[in-house]
Structure prediction request, 651 residues.
Amino acid sequence: MDLENPHNNLTLSESIPDPPQPDGRKKLGQTLTEHNLISNQELALGLNVQRKFRKKLLGEILVDKGVVAHEEITRALNLKNSLESDARLGAILVASGLVSHEDLNIALIEQKKLRGCRLGKILVDMGVLDSEMLALALALQCKTKYVDLKRYPVEEFECRALSPELLRRLKVFPISFKKNELTVVVADPNNLSSEADLRFHTGLHIKVAGVSSEKTIMEAIDKVYGTLSQNNLAHILHENIKTEVEKIEDLEEEGHSIAEEVGREQPIVEIVNHILKTAVVKRASDIHIIPEGKTAKVKLRIDGMLYDELSFQKERLSSITNRMKILSGMDIAERRLPQDGSAKIRVHGKTVDLRFSCLPTISGQSIVIRLLDNSQGNMKIGEMGFFEQDAEDLRKCIGKSHGMLLFTGPTGSGKSTTIYACLQEPVFCNRNIITLENPVEYKLPGICQVQIQEKIGLSFAQGLRQILRHDPDVIVVGEMRDSETAKIGVRSALTGHLVITTLHTNSAAETFIRLRDMGIDDYLISSSVLGVVSQRLVRKICPNCKEPDPEAAQKLRSYDFPVEFSNDVVFFKGAGCEKCNKIGYKGRTLAYEFIPMNEIIKKGIIDGESATTIKRFAIQAGVKTIEEIAFMKAKAGIISVDEIIPLLSIT
Prediction:
């Protein structure tokens, strides 16, 4: 911004410095620029004007020219004055206008009660100060730099004996490594023990470059060290580095008949903890530990696809498997029979339920771990990916007092999550809901959830008979596996209960035929079924790296895509970026077909029509096929064309 006439030739490179005063105190201009209230260019031009008007103050000139507001000048002067002495953190926060005197006094009183707790943390917990502002204030207090790691060009580098677990514990992040000097950013510059601790573990000279917030440091560690390299893995295994890891909550570990020391060795514990935490950070739904020849591989299923994470020598598979069994409560002495187990971990404040499955193979024991993020159980129908009209029709079905609503699709198509979303609707507030599940994936408040246990005779059919005596309004059956369960379910739907269940069929229309094959009479099917949803999960394009896909239209036409479209339609794909782990996809949504029952479909069922005919009746009634729904989402830029092609084989 010009403060003088255009003929003023003063440039930034010629800017007039603001030298410190003889007593070492900072001038106002220096304070204004350091705290980004004005630019160096604006300060230089303001000082140039001040030379012409010797008696005029710099602050007055800057306010007159509209460079900065009067309130900002006052704030800068307060801050400048507070920093001319050895100011405490509270004084800096008040002087900079970040915290009021009242809030500071409340925090100081609280600090006296919580001996040892730092003032900054108390203010952040109170909600009057965010972590970034706290980091900036700490930098001012210690007269060091504030480093915003989100804008800093962070790159991974090799450093001997440096582990992400150590960095998380000390709340530091390395930004450069030269010779024997490690330069780091810290969350708390007043904590001198962290510098000494880091020096002890690395054997390097430590240089503190500045301050950043704890949250930003943790995010940077996750970004750079999210994947454990083979070199670091070998270092942990063979060098036996002892690092602190975040506590993982175990189940009871009693009743094992042999020594478990091999599953409790610190390097093995660190590797297992790292695998679990990496899976959570990368939003994986499953972890696969697969023995292959002389090695074993760890793969993560992210948005439905498997990706290699790391590999290790097969000699370590037994130790890692034992650690997994200890965590999940399985018998580590049993290696010949399949086993199941469960555990609960807490990673960065997020609670995740784990379901373990151990399967003996000819190459060794294979383990698959299902990760259940508890937040997924709180999704609503509107968040699942249904179009508005279909969501409204689905709400009408679950609003009925009796009848049967079926969700179909293969394993892993999100059927249980959709049912949980339905149960979150307000219509169920005053209704008695009982579920039969195997396993119970998410715990829902106010709902009676029953875990099926086939070993003791509690099957779906047996459980369904029992819960009918508990006066339920809504019955959720995890899966209709046999004709007995199906018959009881249909009978319940016809006698005043709303039954929500799942079935394994390839399309919504095939569901009616499958019920017929399970021994349900056609007239009972037409009378009890309210609607059928057949669904698949498709990956969403990462919004951060979305770009047009010029080959998309040709791909669809080469597969004889049944939906007509013009050449003007623009499809998109993901190029791959840091936020999506260079995959191009982030998150999933539904591709579905929803057939609500109507008179035409009822007549087709009673007449014994085939699935193809019933599907034709549904399309004539306005039902969109799963391919059409996917195509609509591709046109909207939500999914790529590559996600549509696998759906074309669905009849």
